[in-house]
Write a structure and sequence with these properties.
The protein is built from 5 helices and 6 strands. By secondary structure, it is an alpha+beta fold.
């Protein structure tokens, strides 16, 4: 599926659509993505800041998707673990940017070449439009070469 088609369809996915999250940009080569979480009355927490679950959800699938599309169908790619550090209350729209460097893809391919499992951490900052850090999200991605490709 083309990245532009995926972006349009993904933005209709209920967890994103109902919580004012939007995949703003997905590069044609699946190396980069940008997501926004708009602050709305229905997605605020009790103290009127961004709900922590939404801060995590806005970042959840993207490292796995980028790695999966870069490595191709010969690899298993899964989310293995995650952690979030809430740094400051988000009282406005917030953004997350994901950029998968070609060197990291090469590193994953080399590490998984013998069929070994590879675990790699990726970090994303959730920021305001002025660059203030609201949260840091870490995702651990599992990669393994499928048996038929070994």
């Amino acid at each position: 599926m083309r990245a532009s088609t995926f972006r349009r369809l993904f933005n209709l996915w209920p967890p994103f659509l109902c919580n004012s999250m939007r995949l703003q940009m997905l590069s044609d080569d699946w190396r980069e993505a940008r997501v926004v979480l708009r602050l709305r009355p229905w997605n605020r927490n009790y103290v009127k800041s961004q709900f922590g679950g939404n801060l995590f959800a806005m970042t959840d699938p993207f490292w796995m998707l980028l790695v999966m599309h870069q490595l191709g169908s010969d690899y298993y790619v899964w989310d293995k673990a995650a952690a979030i550090d809430f740094v400051a209350p988000g009282r406005e729209d917030v953004y997350a940017h994901f950029k998968l460097e070609p060197a990291v893809v090469d590193e994953l391919r080399a590490a998984a070449a013998n069929g070994e499992k590879v675990l790699r951490w990726f970090e994303t900052e959730v920021v305001t439009s002025s660059g203030k850090v609201i949260a840091r999200v870490r995702k651990q991605i599992y990669v393994r070469l499928k048996p038929k490709a070994r």
